[in-house]
Amino acid sequence: MENWVLLRKGADFAHISEKFHISPRIASLIRNRDVIGDEAIAKYLNGTIADLYDGMLMKDMDKAVNVLVERIRAEKRIRVIGDYDIDGIQSTYILLEGFRYLGADVDSDIPDRMKDGYGLNRHLIDRALDADVDTIVTCDNGIAAAEEIAYAKSMGMTVVVTDHHEVPYREEEGERAYLLPEADAVVDPKRADCLYPFKGLCGAAVAYKLVEALAEAMDSDVCELDYLMENVAIATVGDVVDLVDENRIFVKQGLEMLKRTKNKGLKALIECTGVNAANLNTYHIGFVLGPCMNASGRLDTAKRALELLEARTQKEADVLAGDLKALNDSRKDMTAQAVEEAFIQVENTEIRDDDVLVIYLPQCHESLAGIVAGRVREKYYRPVFVLTRAQEGLKGSGRSIETWHMYEGLNRCAHLLTRFGGHKMAAGLSLPEENLEQFRQEINRKSQLSEEDLVEKIQIDMQLPFSAVTEKFVGDIKVLEPFGKANAKPLFAERKVHVLGARILGKNRNVLKLRVEDTNGTGIDAMYFGDIEGFLNYIKQKFGDRAYQDMLSGRNVPRNRAEKGIEMAFTYYPDINEYQGIKTPQIVIQNYK
């Protein structure tokens, strides 16, 4: 079930159009993304590195810089401890590169997903102690590791936390008491007492801010570290944080750097996966390059992806890139099987009536739980937790919907969990197996979700006749890039569209090409890449078998005005198809009814 909502956000589009040399339609699309006022619009359209905020505005950044400058100058051994996902890998690389540039004696460690679990733990601290490490710097983790940090401090170590996750808290008489670890410095923009102007950075961006501030403090040329923005861009897109404010600038600048990257590993991965570097965009990070890097932390060790970033020879880079692609191909097959099992469980057990789906897949590789949860959420539009059997108890990941804060939901069931962490849209958790059913019941009882919350809202930017789909308009939309979370690709809609014919294409029969016509008589090709079988069954049920057969044979042109034929509403985005040098406007269908 979907609720189509047409956005009608007002502004002086004529003024915006004239001032910024954009069309009123583009001005309207920018307003729909809640970019309001000349200053915000200017930053949205033309933001550069100069518009980034000073990292020293973050709470404890001064402490972190003072501690690390003193440690670097004293030649003390520093160890960066990251995480095994794309953000953690990029964060680790950024800190290593920054610290090495400043002359630090530094190395790194990344937890093994299966053996160590998420974040800082005693194994990692003991390994650091055995290696005579003086100072631990965390990235993309640490905010929830109060006990582990207390242990490291008791062993005489210095600990600096850099993180972007929610600060743990407990409810005391309706008030939140935040539980900060007792580290020497805790740099996390989500701290309640942090006055940094933007809270939405990923872990890699926080790490970048730290090395930038360190370089300033040590009178080094900060511009020498600008190249690390490509790593911030990869992490920002890969960790699916909002592409607004600073994140938009990081990704915009980072993508341009990535197109001509000097990093041998990234270059090899781009070539190995068949991505055209000149046209590289957020899609390629999110769905091609990112999954290859994440696959190392899922099925092997994330250190493999870090080795790729640090590759010194082309041969080494090519071998590592090939390994990561092969791992990701294997991960895809394993994921497809686990997703199918999850769907069967939802359809055939009592959990199908739950508002929050808690799915137990004992044989699923624990590293795939988050991906499976995401696919289930897409199909059923409900918050989903996928749990697997681990060495001790159950471990899993959750993916949420816009109307439910996953971390807060878990916090209400904290007494049943061994460990948990995350944010609004995603979380990780572990619990004793005997608590599984109680957790399922309690997370649902305390969910506070209404029926309305569980109806997906399809936000449409504007109704747009097909005559407006031109090469110029498709080109104009590019000023809104990069697209991603909170800066979605524009979505248009048209009603009373006649479907004149359809053909199934592709060797896997996974593309539907339609010929459609709007009420003004403008015909256009329409591509649909979704559930082809579901779409065709919908046509059969709504319009009958004859109309369905006529459509596939191209005969479904209404014979007179009284005959409507197949008439539908579509949401779509405009596109240009280029074939043998000829460019033709087309639309790509997203939703239908």
Q: How would you characterize the overall build of this protein?
A:
- By secondary structure, the protein is α/β, with parallel strands linked by helices.
- The chain has 19 helices and 20 strands.
- The protein has a five-stranded parallel β-sheet, with helices on both faces. A five-stranded mixed β-sheet has the order 9-10-11-13-12, sandwiched between helices. Strands 16-17-18-20-19 form a five-stranded mixed β-barrel.
- Helix 5 (86-101) crosses helix 13 (303-309).
- The longest helix is centred in the middle third of the chain and has 35 residues, at 314-348.
- The model has no long low-confidence stretch (mean pLDDT 93).
Structural class: alpha/beta
The CATH top-level class label of the largest domain: Alpha Beta
Unreliable residue runs: none
Give the N-to-C terminal Cα separation: 11 Å
- Compute the number of structural domains: 4
Q: What's the mean pLDDT score?
A: 93
Widest sheet: strand order? 3-2-4-5-8
As a percent range, the share of helical residues equals 40-55%
Number of helices: 19
Tell the overall outline.
globular
Which fold name corresponds to the CATH topology of the largest domain?
inorganic pyrophosphatase (n-terminal core)
CATH architecture of the largest domain: Alpha-Beta Complex
User: How is the main sheet built?
Assistant: 5 strands, parallel
